[in-house]
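Appendix B, record 7
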Amino acid sequence: MTDAKDAKVPYSLNSKAVAEATYAWLHKRGVTLLEIAELVMLLQKKYYPNLTMDECVHNVEMVLSKREVQNAVLTGIQLDVLAEEGKLFPPLQDMIENDEGLYGVDEILAFSIVNVYGSIGFTNYGYVDKLKPGVLERLNDKSDGQIHTYLDDIVGAVAAAASSRIAHRKQAEREQEMGLPHAPEDSEEAAKRRAAQDGSEAPE
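Structure tokens (predicted):
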């Protein structure tokens, strides 16, 4: 008979721990929310001249609050770290270590983030991925020995998703100002009201 104290405790996701680990690992890898927000500003300033950095930071935070985004961040950073430590099997080790041009799994992981706020994020992602501005230029500098094969794509994808989120909200604001009927795709306030009414947990 199995001793009760030896019985395996069923796995249960600790959402708070996942969220905290996401922020902690971004910090450990030298990426700040402000740097990601600067990419968002670069992408959206032309369309929304009154956009503030506070808004950009807030939208980055909301993207990072999504569980699927947290999963992508942690997975990508883990692979980068293992590559730095030489712990991947060949030829995967060589491909990630050298950011092989024909290795596209890093971008596929980034697409899972871009998709969170609709397909318009693909254009934004493609733009920053090609231009490599700001923090992306630093992450692509391999002179310090660090490997960011996944992280540079992930950071660009988070910025692209945050930009898409802003675009959706600005459109909703315009509709409200014009008195048009609208149904925002991702209304935090509406989600909270619905959760309070039916006693369920508000969506991420």
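Remarks on this record: The chain has a mean pLDDT of 88. The chain has ten helices and no strands.
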